[in-house]
UniProtKB/TrEMBL annotation:
Pfam family, one: LysM
GO molecular-function terms, A-Z: chitin binding
InterPro entries: LysM (IPR018392), LysM1-like (IPR052210), LysM_dom_sf (IPR036779)
Superkingdom of origin organism: Eukaryota
UniProt protein name: Carbohydrate-binding module family 50 protein
Keywords: Chitin-binding, Signal, Virulence
Signal peptide interval: 1-17
Regions of compositional bias (Low complexity) in chain numbering: 470-480
PANTHER family hit by this protein: AM15, PEPTIDOGLYCAN-BINDING LYSIN DOMAIN
Record has ATP-binding as a keyword: no
SMART domains attached to this UniProt entry: LysM
Disordered: annotated segments: 470-489
Organism: Karstenula rhodostoma CBS 690.94
Positions of the LysM domain: 249-295, 339-385, 416-462, 497-544
Amino acid sequence: MATSILLLCSFICVAVAQLSFFPNNTLVVAGNISTACTTAMNATIDCDPYIMALATLDDFTSLNNDTVQQNVCATKCGTALSKYHNSVAAACAKDPLPWDGTPATYIGDFVWAYYNGSCLKDTATGQWCKDYITNVSSTLTGDKQISDLPKSQLCSPCIIQLFKHQQSTSFSNYDDNMAAEWASVQKVCSTTGPTAVPTPYATPTDKPGHVPGNATIVATGTLKIVNDILPDGSNLLAGAKLCLPQACPTYLVQSGDTCWQIAVNNGIGYTDFLGYNPSVNNDCSNLLSGTNVCIGLPGPAWNGTTIAGATVTKTAEFAPSMTSIPTNAAKGTTRKCGKWYDVQYGDYCQLVALNNSISLPLFTSINPSINSTCGNLVSGVAYCVWPMANWNSTNIGVPVPPPTATPPGTTNTCYEWYIIQSGDGCYQIEQAYEITMAQMQAWNPDLHSDCGNLLLGEAYCVSGATATSTPTKTSSAPTSLPSPPGPTQSGIASKCNKYVMQKTGVFCQDMATAAGISLAQLYAWNPALNGDCSGLWTGYAYCVGVAS
């Protein structure tokens, strides 16, 4: 048989309704197969492409989004996967195996098995089983197993169905431990069914399925994620070049281990363990024996110094300065951010953190709108992925020198600086640092009241000495309102105190959601939008808040 060649099966999710296992002519095989077989394998399937990413991660936790769950589990997808199997099996019946030890139907069958397991529903309530199992599993602490649940929860249709499915397929993580647990569940719930561990596909140890880990001292799960390797390693062929994640102190998972036990035995916290191993689910349901996990932070040891306010030097973990805040920034996210990332369809927290070299705990801390299961990432919303070191600091400390040139007259008693970048305006800086225009002018007296003379590349003080006295407001003195950061359309609310700049690809609902207001409020304050967003103009400022 010809030399094995890496199967280039792309798992990137795109916003289309068709799934292709081998997009852009990436089907590469180790043997000579017929045109009919190749055509059948290259067929597109009427499934949401996101199912491929979920299957690759072996993710059976709740998606926390009923619309996405319905799209992934559409009936037409199950029908299409069944037809794909039958078509490939028939077209390739007389052909040699396309890869050593692996049939032509393998990729399709792998996704089909995931579909059948992750799309289970409680027939009585209509609830998705992934949602139910995630909810009841959250009550388990320490090394407790599913079988430790109360009988009323343990004997639910969802748990019974999932055990039956996991036992029936070669594509699951069903092993001897799960078989014993399934037998225990059957006894408690007075049900019956086979418990034997199904025979997996047999592949040579130096061919598909052998995923390195020990020799390179990296986490097996992370290695699979960054190289799009299937959970059982069956699409990893001899001679393949791998992208290696950063090395870490590792532990080889033994049969019967739990995440909690591994964390305690190695002197680390449970949350730290999950942060070091982003491929492991929050409930530890996909921990596999025989794989490496990190028990320490990947990468070289950090030996930087803390930011005491006496210097602007920062380590590579933190941004040296703040960048412009996007109009679609997530609500509550720190504004002291050096890099923003627009979440794409199919993204999840671990992947975003890995791709941007930020720890998972730090990523979720600087983006507090993300819930504990990371099930509410919003496509099209910008999240901070590189914060400044003082992103959550409220301690002023001692004055620090400016990082670059400053305008004439700028105060020397300054605790925090901001370097002006292209497109900046006073309003954005005020919002980011929660200061007023009066404070900006007090610390930067060269600044005009209309903010028309900001100097690109120069440093402005955004946290200076507190004024000795505060002017008393009187009823006759009107409250000053910020100037819009760009041109506006006619009819905009006269008492507008908060604006957003429209950008290409950002529409009315996006602006309203990002600002935490209703669509009706946006239309009321911006009548030029015509009540249906048809009057939206790119590059114009729109009102998203009014003074009471």
